[in-house]
Every structure is written in C-alpha cells, then in structure tokens.
Amino acid sequence: MAVADLPDIIHELDRSLTSIEVVVDPDSKKVEIAKLEEESAAPDLWNDQANAQRVTSRLSRLQSEVERVEDLRQRLDDVQVLLELAAEEGDRDSAAEAEHEVSVLKGEIEALEVRTLLGGEYDERDALVTIRSEAGGVDAADFAAMLLRMYERWAERHGYPIEVYDVSYAEEAGIKSATFTVKSPYAYGTLSVEQGTHRLVRISPFDNQGRRQTSFAGVEVLPVVEETDHIDVPETDIRVDVFRSSGPGGQSVNTTDSAVRITHLPTGLVVSCQNEKSQIQNKAAALRVLQARLLEKARQDREAEMNALKSAGNSWGSQMRSYVLHPYQMVKDLRTNYETGNTDAVFDGDIDAFIDAGIRWRQRDDAA
C-alpha cells in the first residue's frame, strides 16, 4: 500500500462504510437502545428471567453494533485528517502511521461489510454445531477431532465462549461426534456457511503401509433456540435414557449414570449430553439441542413448501471443502474456489477468509 494511493483507498473505505451505515441504521438502533435501557432499569425486571435475559442481551448487542460503526467512522475521519497534515508538513512518520491505520481499517470495514450480509431469520443467534465422522474409518474419526479443534481455536481467536454438550469418542482415535455451542452475536449466521461435508486427503498415520487415505466428516450448524421460539416438546413425545458418561480416561470421567440420551419419537431425532455434572443438567442441555434441531426441521419444511431452497450446495451432506495434505498442501472451498496452501494455519483456526468468502457466495447465490 503506497502513501500516494491512500486518498483513493480512504475514499473507497468511506463509500463502503456509508453503505454499512445505511444497513445498520445507527439512529434507529439508538431509539431502540433508549427503550431497552428504560426496560432494563425497571426494578422488577428480573422477576421474569427469560424476558430480562432477552432485554439485556438485545441491549448489549445493539450497543456493540452502534459503537463499532461509530468507532470506525471516527477513526476513518481521523486518519484522513492525519494524512492531510502529514502531506502539508512532509511528516513521514505521520504518513507511515496513517498507512498502517488505513490497512487496519480496511480489514475491519471489510469484515463488518460481510456482517451486514447476515440478515437471515436466525443469523443473529448463537450457533449449535455438531461434527460427525463419516466415511473413512479411524481417519475420519481423527479428522472430526481435527475439525473440532479448528473451530475451538477459531472461537478462541475471536474471544467467543464455547460450551461443549457432548463428545462421543471413537475406539482407536478421534471422535465419532461432538456437539457444542458458540456464544456470540451472529455466530449462527457466520458459521452456517461451514455446514456440509469436509474431505481430508493425507498419508494416513494409522496405516502401517503409509498409504494415502481419503476421509470425510460432516458439519451441521443450527441456530440456538430461544425462549420466544415456543418449540413444544411434550413428555409423551420423547424417550429419555440415562447412561454412564464416557471419555478417553482420567479422573474427569464421570462414574455415575448422569449422561442423558433423548429420542424424539415422532421424528426419530436422537440427541445426548454427558458433559454436565448432573442428570438434570444433562437433560436440560439435551432438550435445548433437540429443540434447535426441531426448529431447523420446521424451517426446512417451510422452505420446501415455498420452494425457496435454490441450491443443493446449502444442503446437509454436500461436499464443500477439501483439505489436501498429500501429495501437496492445500485447503480449497469447492463452492467459492477460495484456497490457501497454509494448511497448518487453517487447522489452527485461521478460517475467517473461508467464512467471509462463503457468506459472499451465499449472498450472490440467493440473489441469483
């Protein structure tokens, strides 16, 4: 990025930020913030905990959105002034500082621009993610564990809390499945583009002949159910089984029958939770997972009725990304064609470029 190009870059960033401000509409959000602040100050707010959580969560989310846009606008205005002063006084240090700030602003504005594309019904919610090993035996189970770590590292990079509901370990290595939530505004909208079948090609560490192995793992992403969703799950529609929690060993393994498996009889959906300390907590967590899956099933049924599902590329089970470690190293998204040769960084959670490309691809696909 040359200093001479900075005025044009700043002009383009100003245009992008203006478009974002139109979508975010800080003024209307400030009106809602004032109303929510009044509600949150009510002395009886926490008499209704579900409503209190809704109010405080919505208030925090709106304040964060407005502050982020206003902060970017202020910084963009400031860097423009800094660049003008640097040009007038021939100050190279100030010009270098402006160049660095423009580079940082460019990344942040582009990231926020992607966020404005998340306007789906449930995009603002936390994400409920399930990873399952598929074809490929022990390599697939190991691959599923690699993906679990990848998403955990991605969340850690962004400071997003994760709550693990259930991990089913494979016999030799890796996992059969894992279910967890990512708790962050727009986590569902962001991670929903990760849904599909992921493919790994490598020399298998479990093959004593050192042969190349292809294995598959599936990623399912659902919006977390909220109190206002009213997903009824009558007790007569479920079967609850308890069992002993399992794990790879060690003192942390639960030795009581506190793990819970719930079968939804009308649909055949099965969910389990074993990571909480008590059977009651595990049942409550498993019910939340079941409700999320029923909510997603209802959404899919509505889409099918309206024939709104335009692309098979959004469906569960569609192959969407390849991770090749042999004979060359490359991770490639098969929908967007975005690729990188830095496979280590990807497995360490550096997947933002893939997610951003996926969101933009989905926006173009939906508009087609």
From TrEMBL:
Residues 244-260 form the Prokaryotic-type class I peptide chain release factors domain. SMART domains: PCRF. Gene3D superfamilies: 3.30.160.20, 3.30.70.1660, Release factor (1.20.58.410). The modification N5-methylglutamine is found at Q251. One of its GO terms (cellular component) is cytoplasm. It comes from the Bacteria. Methylated by PrmC. Methylation increases the termination efficiency of RF2. It is found in: Cytoplasm. Residues 52-115 form a coiled coil. Keywords: Coiled coil, Cytoplasm, Methylation, Protein biosynthesis. GO terms for molecular function: translation release factor activity, codon specific. Peptide chain release factor 2 directs the termination of translation in response to the peptide chain termination codons UGA and UAA. Belongs to the prokaryotic/mitochondrial release factor family. This is Peptide chain release factor 2. The lineage of its organism: Bacteria, Bacillati, Actinomycetota, Actinomycetes, Propionibacteriales.
